[in-house]
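Consider the following assembly input.
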Amino acid sequence: MGNGPDTRLIVPMENSREAALVSETHALAANNLQEVIYWLEEIEPLETVMDSQAELPEGRDQIPDFADVKGQESAKRALRVAAAGLHNVLLIGPPGGGKTMLARRMPSIMPAMSRDEVLETTRIYSVAGLLNAEHPLIDVRPFRAPHKNASSASIIGGGRVPRPGEISLAQNGVLFLDEFTEFNRDVLEALRQPLEDKLVTIARAQATCTYPANFSLIASCNPCPCGFFGSDLECTCTPPQIQKYLGRISGPLLDRMDLHVEIPRVNFEQLRDDSGSEGSASMRENVLQAREIQLKRFSRHKFKLNSQMRPADVKRFCRLDETSEALLKNAFDRLKMSARAYDRILKVARTIADLDNAADIKIQHLAEAMQYRSLDRKYWRN
Ligand SMILES: Nc1ncnc2c1ncn2[C@@H]1O[C@H](COP(=O)(O)OP(=O)(O)OP(=O)(O)O)[C@@H](O)[C@H]1O
Ligand SMILES: [Mg+2]
């Protein structure tokens, strides 16, 4: 088939949505060859696959809503920031505070996938052999929640011919690791490189493959084996037990978590309070607005989100005024921060400013971003 103006693409009906996404021209869809023959003989027209058919069904009605969560306002705020800039979040707290409940509501505030994201993510699922006639496209933003006993190969990727793992299947979406401290140590450590590079390279004797791994990691855990360390209830663990438990999240891994959020137990009054907490619709609207700003800012770049900025981009797009600079310098020296933490704080501050529709990062944006890094002192360095 040539590429002239009369070129027509005819695809099977079940592939029509895929074709609408890929082709710039209008494709035609047929249920069988008979229909193609009728079309050629001008007896019966074929159905045209319009771009608009590539508009993606989102199935939003089935996704649970943040309005169900009582209290936990700061956790909801942190998840909004994470959704806006695709940052990583660590939720830590005693049993039953709503950590799992909160994380599972993350998809309700994420934007619909763009055409490029659909193509990119679909390609990964295709390599993993996860597409079929019923699911020819990945057009709903991934939310992957592998079990804590999952193998390194299934999470990071692997096999004789390396297949993409959960971190790649979460591309452009969320990877939720519930009970984070209970994952295999080698899995947790292997997350370090992809969390930094947003790519994963899997080397095997037969082949070496590199797959994308750009996702928001939402990790949740208790602060100790009994679950109550640091809460208003008595903790029955010994200090070495607590240290060993939290030590499963190494310093370098913790450093890659942009937002550390404490999830306290909700009290009775909060649970009984029906005055209504903010629902997903308005949170999502704010996220979409912050995404728009990022798209414009990075229109000449290959990447689209604040979390994807490299150090040179951070320098350019995350300028601080003198007072903010002094605040950050002080914290950097006092807390012996790493260069990575410094960059990550600035990226989060940029997202917070975008949610606020502010052209420049102001001191309140920076202060909020810094405050999300304060829990490691309470739990890890004591
Ligand atoms: N903030 C909240 N608002 C409303 N209901 C809540 C809240 N927190 C917990 N619940 C109720 O308690 C249940 C358990 O919450 P969830 O499983 O999210 O807790 P968790 O913090 O993940 O606990 P664990 O540490 O044991 O995993 C929820 O399904 C919900 O019914
Ligand atoms: Mg839980």
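The pocket of magnesium ion (ligand 2) is lined by residues 99-100, 178, 220 (CB under 6 Å). Ask yourself how this observation constrains the way the partners meet.
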